[in-house]
Amino acid sequence: YNIKLYCTTTLKQHQSQIFSFLDSKKIKYQAVDIAQRSEVKEEMRKKTGNPTALPPQVFNRDVYCGVSLVPDQAWVWTKIESLLRLAQRP
After folding, report:
1. Is 3 within a domain?
2. For residue 12, which of 37, 38, 29, 35 has the smallest C-alpha distance?
3. CATH number for the domain harbouring residue 44
4. What PANTHER family does the database record attribute to this sequence (predicted)?
5. How many domains does one find in the chain?
6. Does residue 18 lie in a domain region?
7. In whole angstroms, what is the distance from residue 83 CA to residue 67 CA?
8. How far apart are CA 57 and CA 90, in angstroms?
9. Is the pTM value of this prediction over 0.85?
10. In terms of Cα–Cα distance, which of 56, 43, 51 is closest to 13?
11. What is the rounded distance in angstroms from the CA atom of residue 60 to the CA atom of residue 51?
């Protein structure tokens, strides 16, 4: 889940880093903009189990990866594949 409107420069950078990583690994993904409809934001929050969750939020299919992928939160790029549980993809 991401947001295109009404987001800070920092948030845009975090989202861009995530998209760039996924693109570099040729990982197919669907970016879901929560600004399009309020029910999409509520869906994201329900899936994360956090009623105040903000994007970016990453899922592997319908499995929440358990992290808000923000590089300055003890984020280790070399471990992103395990964080995203990519090894478990069918």
Report:
1. no
2. 35
3. 3.40.30.10
4. SH3 DOMAIN-BINDING GLUTAMIC ACID-RICH-LIKE PROTEIN (PTHR12232), SH3 DOMAIN-BINDING GLUTAMIC ACID-RICH-LIKE PROTEIN 3 ISOFORM 1 (PTHR12232:SF14)
5. 1
6. yes
7. 8
8. 21
9. no
10. 56
11. 20
63-64/59-60 β-pairing: antiparallel
- The token duo for 67 is 């992290």
Query: Do 85 and 65 contact (CB within 8 A), yes or no?
Result: yes
State the burial class of residue 18 (Cβ atoms within 10 Å of its Cβ: 0-12, 13-18, 19+). buried
Give the pLDDT confidence of 16-48 residue by residue, as tens digits. 888 887 888 788 889 999 988 889 999 999 999
- pLDDT (tens digit, 9 = 90+) per residue, 11-21? 888 888 888 87
The answer to whether residue 45 sits within a structural domain is yes
23: tokens are 């693109």
The residues, ordered by sequence, that sit 6+ positions from 55 with a Cβ below 8 Å of its Cβ are 1, 2, 3, 7, 11, 15, 34, 44
On whether residue 27 sits in a domain, the answer given is yes
- 28 lies in which domain range? 9-88
Closest CA to 53 of 71, 40, 62, 72: 40
